[in-house]
Amino acid sequence: MRRNSSALRKTFAVILALVADACLVHGIAPLVHAGNLLWLSGWLLALIRCCLALTAVYLLNLGEVPPAPARFLALHSALPAALESLSAVMRLGVHPCGATMRSAAGVARWWMICAGLSLAAALFWEGWLPDSSGAKKKRQKPRVLFMRVVRMYRPDLALLLGGFGFLTLAAVCEIQIRFYTGKVIDNLRDNYVPDEFLSALLLMGVFSVGSLVGTGGRGGLLMWAINSFQCRVKGKLFRAQTKQEIAFFDTTKIGELTSLLSKDIPLMAQTVCLNINVVLRTLIKTVYTLIFMLDLSWTLTCLVLMEVPVSGRIQSITDKHCQRLTQATHDSMTAANETANEILSAVRTVRSFNAEKHEARRYDNKLLDTHRLKSRRDTFRVVSLLARRLTGLAIHVLMLWYARLFIQKGHMTIGNLVSFILYQSDIGDNIRTLIYMSSHMVNSVGAAGKVFEVLDRQPQIRTDGALAPDRLAGHVIFRHLKFTYPAHPDVAVLQDFSLELPVGRITALVGVSGEGKSTCARLLKRLYDPHDGQILLDGIELQSYDCRYLSKKIAVVSQEPVLFSGSIRYNIAYGLADCSLDAIQKAALQANAHDFITQLEKGYNTEVGEGGSLLSKSERQRVAIARAVVRQPRVLVLDEVTSSLDEHSQNKVLQDLVRTSDRTVLLITHNLKTIETADQIVVIGAGSVQERGTHRQLMEKNGMYCKMRETLATA
After folding, report:
1. Averaged pLDDT, 80-94
2. CATH 3.40.920.10 fits 476-714, yes or no
């Protein structure tokens, strides 16, 4: 009850303030304009009206002025003075208030028009611009996103201001062309006055040139701003994506991330530049078109404006359905792109299983889903467009019938009617554009919301470590680790896992697939953080070290190494800005890769192709080993890297790379023959260490390791 009474009190206060304002304008405005005072007096009147209205609301509302009514009353008071001042500055030759404010009927008519325009502007403010009130935070999320996009355009402010200046010039000139078209027609029908006729033609030419200059300047500057915005935000988003932890990529589809870069950011850029460009241009043209229409015939103008609520209702119903279908279409397109990426990235597997037709049908089904959603959305739009056009046609016919009566009575000339018809076609299109753009801006803000989710997201893995000692021994301890992958939180990979990697020794980690061997390497590289337990490097937790320092001191070579498009030299020195050719060749020698590289036509400058497709699997593994060795790591993890190498290459890599250095080595493999001479062999099972010792010690235990050897011997 208290909330309802407060709302009624505020409404009553605003109504009384408007009544007092109407009485003030009715009494003073005709005297001001009858005295032919300067337009500055209009601003004095606006100041008096605003002060009195706000004072009335303040007193009637018990010492409180709500922000929304205050904005409405201030705009309502200042709008007539602003329009007349702009007319004087632009030298339009038409004073919107001058003719109407000399009579009581004109004052009332103009007061109601300004109230309607002010109310529309206040509603637009409430619908789009964010309020500081925390109670409306959830409802105003699209407005907050919209303002964030606007703030991201700050570096392009000069381009935007220039574009909007040219926009205003183009809009005003287009309206003036319609006005002087009617003047030319009147001169052709009535008494021909050469000077007036030539003056009208000259002004039409001047405004036509102004319209062309404004349109061209507006398009060029705004497109420049859009391109600058896209380049800047794409770089910022890409950096934010690459900074996320690996778990983020496990639960987020790559197609969604690339879609943000290729689709959502361009749509987000249009939110301010193109959409506000259209909205402002249309709004300026609508306001000034209304001014000229009211000057020609206020009765016909009110008749034409009857189309607005009908069209608005039709559009709101359509938007409700189209917005839902647009989101579904976007999701369907993303799914189709992900399917295409998956098929093309695995095209060799598809070809080997002769599954081209199956995959083509799968992709076609995704495209058909997208097509059906687009068809439903477009059907709604077509029906909406047809209904709005029929409404406009009915209003147009009714307007022509009344116009014929006015011409017969001498209230209008044919030239005025031609100008009015031109204005009517413009204002109908403008109002429909404003209604459409309001919904389109919501869709654009929705795209911005997805971008801001990634930009605002903080990585779940700490990256604030700063420790980077000059000397590092490489002593690693896994202490009571517990870990599950985010994509499968119910499956425990490691449980109470503890292991020590002695300095300068080789530790071999063996076990059946899926027991957590590769997980240890990923945790050591800090691709993930354990849920419980610690990983110590020289007695200090990994989180305390600088990430860039760790990337050099701990190197991991996986079973399926990834190479990037570029030369062999580029891939070995990847991530190192000052890596010399001598260091690259030395690393390649240790990885047993130098011989095959020098046999290639371009040597170290040979292109490896996309993902290293131009090299064999064993060659890719040796290049990956060289990429790890060139960093001179203190801890080296080899995860099944010798699986594709012949026996000679395996022995050479293990001898030259592992045994001739004093670095700590973790060797993960299924090939038990290659680990017999390891300093320590660890058998992992059920997420924890089951056995530990040398080859001889484990064979004497006759446990899991011995059984694995027997299985290997009988295979």
Report:
1. 55
2. no
